[in-house]
Amino acid sequence: MEAKTKRASGRGLYAEGDKNPHEHDGTVLETKNPTGTKKLYIESYGCQMNFSDSEIVASVLGKEGYTTTQNAEEADLVLLNTCSIRDKAEQTVRNRLNHFNGHKRKNPDMKIGVLGCMAERVKGKLLEEEQLVDLVVGPDAYRDLPNLLQELDGGRKAVNVILSKEETYDDIEPVRLGGNGVSAFVSITRGCDNMCTFCVVPFTRGRERSRNPQTIVDEVLDLSKRGYKEITLLGQNVDSYLWYGGGLKKDFEKASDVAKASAVHFANLMSMVAEAVPHMRIRFSTSNPQDMRDDVLETIAKYKNICNYIHLPVQSGSSRILELMNRGHNREEYIALIDRIRRIIPGCAISHDMISGFPTETEEDHQETLSLMDYVKYDFGYMFFYSERPNTYAARKLEDDIPEEVKKRRLTEIIQLQSKHSLYRHEQMVGKTFEVLVEGTSKKSEAQLFGRTDTNSVVVFDRHDFKPGDFVHVKIDSCTTATLLGTVVANPEA
């Protein structure tokens, strides 16, 4: 299967039955609340964190008598959980808001709101200048939704975009929305301290803080009891997970000696989860190279149920560009980390994020990106050309000086090379047998199912009597760039 375009400013390689696992592009979420009398329509855009946050919102509003619907026209409340990572994402949301305002003209009692990162960034424009919404709620204010809805009932616009130093929603049980009943997201951190110069996340989601590890284990145990077979530990930067009794990560140095001695790091957390649910697959996203410690790699290697797959964004292969991006690592340090991953976790799949056309990027810088890709030979890639985001350091201090046609040409070269590497990695799997977790029906044929290996490769095979949630062994017969095709093996040891 060829690489497909997810949006105008970026592309990712993904397979049949699969979305970019790091993004949601207008996913409509649905659950049932038997006691609910009011209708909630919610769309989620952007990263997995937004999808997870939408499940928290549904839980909060479920207690207020809302049940979700997939029909916006019948909704009492329409919410868009938004992304600000690229301009295209914001324009998509604005178009959707205009669309929903068409429904509102027919149903004046309908209320429209935005959640998440875009809400935080452009609240004034949405409320006052463009008058597209009634409600604006930032990512740390979802508990306040009942109060904000009361404001709306009183005929007033409602806003809460205050960022918190403590909020992790660790006591709220998310409502699982629109999933496959097999895989679920579990948020473990919020916010980001990295301050990459191209990124709005630190401004829209605030400083890093981590969730109480026991509440994470409890949520995972509950998911296991409900039949889920796989969880993904989520955060803007999961590697920097640090629990020392609560509070911001940056304040750890001020903690007591006792708190420091009993602190839980990401490797500790993964061990706790792996041992709590030994029959569940465990994934995590997203990692940052500068924060990935060797004890994390050793933990992945130690536990069979922690998947051998790491999403490791790099953004550029040029040390000069990485410094301008404030990535916290250079090319050599990144390569050294790749080498350690290969040594400690043989056969580990690695994927990347890559940006073409960052300000001042030369052809030499671009060639360094391609040569890094040749060195690593990533299994998958999520690739975009640079989109200037307001108020970031890059927007304020660096001229967006690379012509769009150059950005697109370089992006095309990156995508073509990644297609070559993805095919190479899949070809190495032909003739081998892998355990596959069944996720659903193939889009091409009702007679086939698709699932995923622990290295995150998508496999398509004949249905037989299997169903989502089953683990099956599949021998790989052939492959495309994005998909493995195989035959179920009854006795893989034979």
Mind explaining what this structure looks like?
- This protein has 494 residues and is of the alpha/beta class.
- It has 3 domains: 23-160, Rossmann fold, CATH 3.40.50.12160; 183-427, tm_1862 like domain (pyruvate-formate lyase- activating enzyme, Alpha-Beta Horseshoe), CATH 3.80.30; 433-488, Nucleic acid-binding proteins (OB fold (Dihydrolipoamide Acetyltransferase, E2P)).
- 33% of the residues lie in helices and 23% in strands.
- The chain is built from 15 helices and 24 strands.
- The protein has helices spanning 48-62, 87-106, 116-121, 123-129, 145-153, 201-205, 213-225, 257-261, 266-276, 294-302, 319-324, 331-344, 363-376, 393-397, 404-427; strands at 4-7, 10-12, 24-29, 38-46, 66-68, 77-82, 111-115, 135-137, 158-160, 183-187, 189-190, 209-210, 230-234, 242-243, 264-265, 281-285, 309-311, 349-356, 380-385, 433-441, 448-452, 458-462, 471-479, 483-488.
- The strands form 6 sheets. Strands 3, 4, 5, 6, 7, 8 and 9 form a 7-stranded mixed β-sheet that branches. Strands 1-2-19-18-17 form a 5-stranded mixed β-sheet, covered by helices on one side.
- It is globular, with a radius of gyration of 22 Å.
- The two termini are 32 Å apart.
- The model is unreliable at 1-24 (pLDDT under 50).
Gyration radius over CA: 22 Å
CATH C-level name of the largest domain: Alpha Beta
Note the total helix count: 15
Oligomerization status of the protein chains: single chain
Q: Please estimate the helix content.
A: 25-40%
Overall mean pLDDT? 89
Number of domains: 3
Shape: globular
Q: Ranges with pLDDT <50 over ≥5 residues? A: 1-24
Largest sheet: 7 strands, mixed
- Stated plainly, the CATH topology of the largest domain is called pyruvate-formate lyase- activating enzyme
